[in-house]
Amino acid sequence: MKLKKLEKNKYKKVLLLVIFGIVFLIIGIFIDKTFSLYQVNKSFEFVNGKVNYYGKSDVYFVYYNGTTWLDDIPKKNNADNLVYDHAVCDNDATVEWDSANWSPKVKNLTKAKTRCSLYFVNKDTAMKNCIASKKTGVECLEEVISQTNEMAYDETFENNLRYIGASPNNYVTFNNESWQIIGVMNNIKSSLDGAGESRIKLIRTNSIGNMQWDSSKSNDWTRPASLNTTLQARSEASSSLIDNAVWNLGKISGAYATTKFTYDTERGTQSQPTTWLGKVGLIYMSDYGYAVGGSLRNSCLRKNLIGYNTDNCMNNDWLHKGYDYFTLMANSVYSNGCFTVDKDGFINYHLVYDAFAIHPVVYLKSSVKITGGAGSSSSPFTLSL
């Protein structure tokens, strides 16, 4: 009996050792993963303004608005219109600002007790600083305006950055006329076999008049359509600022489709030809859909474009003009059909030989710089190479 009792105690000890071993193993894995975030990636993604991690890669954040040290990170779209400007870190660490998530990503974290000072300035000041730095217009829009409620990423495969809302400050002087920035479009090619790059897309603020999409009653833009010929023949005083672009010609059967579905269809391969190379075109149907802003933006983006006249979508979309104007999108069912932005705020089907307003659209060269202005209608951005 005594032997059995000793064996029982022995098994208990073994069991306890196994349990303790498992617990320590779990703790070890957790600690390893915690430290490997810094040891392997040498980075730390900051989200909510206060960091309570201690160990190899301590990080302390402080925030400055130009006059005052702040207790916490300013909120996105704050009342003071503050946007991120730059950061200074100890121990050779650096900060990469994530404007989409409104958070800094710290790079090259190698030492504990690292302090990073994040500097925030007024949007207008930040834009002036970016202009003074001689960066391109693409860079300044991505660095400054992307942090405000005037622009939003469309979350497509290209993740373009677009001006949104009823009346954003997106005005620019181009061709000695008033134009507006649709956004920064990614993966835009200047030749059919070229590499894609990020380029600013503009639309003329006012119509050049009512015209037919095609007088010969065909919705093949590459024939070329009569409107295509007219647009390419326009004398652009600022032609040195634009270049050829590959335009997508995917066709769709109707506007009973969401903006995302339409965007993908525009880039589809079901139409022949699928693309066209040229300097001047029209907006896509999806450009209109993605320009919606306000508190109902997400709700509107889930709607079909035929329904943009409801739930205040059109009244929060600066590309709603209050009159019919043509888009580049052709009908996939009827060879004489194409689509317009309707005066009542939804995408509508029409015949190519009907006459509606025309708003030319161009892509700036990627090297174009914003040289001044605030983007308002009274103080539009100015451009140069």
Explained architecture:
- With 385 residues, the chain is an alpha+beta fold.
- The protein folds into three domains: 1-36; 43-128, no CATH class; 136-384, no CATH class.
- It is built from seven helices and 22 strands.
- The chain has helices spanning 2-39, 123-132, 137-143, 226-232, 259-266, 285-290, 297-301; strands at 43-45, 59-64, 69-70, 82-89, 94-98, 103-107, 114-122, 151-153, 161-163, 171-174, 177-188, 197-204, 210-212, 245-248, 275-278, 325-330, 337-341, 347-351, 355-357, 361-363, 369-372, 382-384.
- Strand 16 and strand 17 (337-341) form a beta hairpin.
- The N and C termini lie far apart (96 Å).
- Residues 1-8 and 26-56 have low confidence and may be disordered.
Quantity of strands, as a count: 22
Helix content: 10-25%
| Overall residue-averaged pLDDT value | 86
- How much strand content do the residues show? 25-35%
In total, the number of domains comes to: 3
Radius of gyration: 28 Å
The separation of the N and C termini measures 96 Å
Shape: elongated
SSE run: HEEEEEEEHHEEEEEEHEHEHHEEEEEEE
Our count of helices gives: 7
Biggest beta sheet summary? 6 strands, antiparallel
Instruction: Provide the low-confidence segments as ranges.
Output: 1-8, 26-56
Assign the structural class, choosing from mainly alpha, mainly beta, alpha/beta, alpha+beta, or little secondary structure. alpha+beta
